[in-house]
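ok so i was messing around last nite and threw this chain in just to see what happens. nothing serious, just curious
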Amino acid sequence: MKKTLGTMIAAMLSFFIVTFVFADNAAAGENTKDGRFIAYNNGTVLDTKTNLMWAVKDNGSNINWQGAKSYCESYGGGGYKDWRMPTQAELWGLYDDSVKGNNGFNLTPLINLTDCCPWASEIFGSNASRFNFTNERWRITPQSSSIGRALPVRSGK
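result:
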């Protein structure tokens, strides 16, 4: 009886792990793939190399650093609540000079940037960095300047 009960509990735990952990992205419905990137029909793109999930598009207009941070943290794409502003390294990891994606930027066409340079989370006094997806360069810009974009990211699992 104890062995049967233990087997039943193990089976139930396995079911819940598979259902709630692995089904998260599968339930979203895969739309298309581009190399290591998978776009889902819930407005998210998973980078299978880094296990980061990106918003399918940026905020679409000029925004200062604080506005970009707020936008990322309040973003609700895919039904997730743990979006944030990406780091410099995370943005740089998207850059691919062999690709011309949407609007001519060097990243997967599954992520739509409306301008070259989304903000990164790192700050330097009153300045912050933006990454340029046309030439793989960092731009140090006053946080108060409304010339960047917000591209939310979250951990994929």
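not much to say yet. Confidence is low (pLDDT under 50) at residues 1-27.
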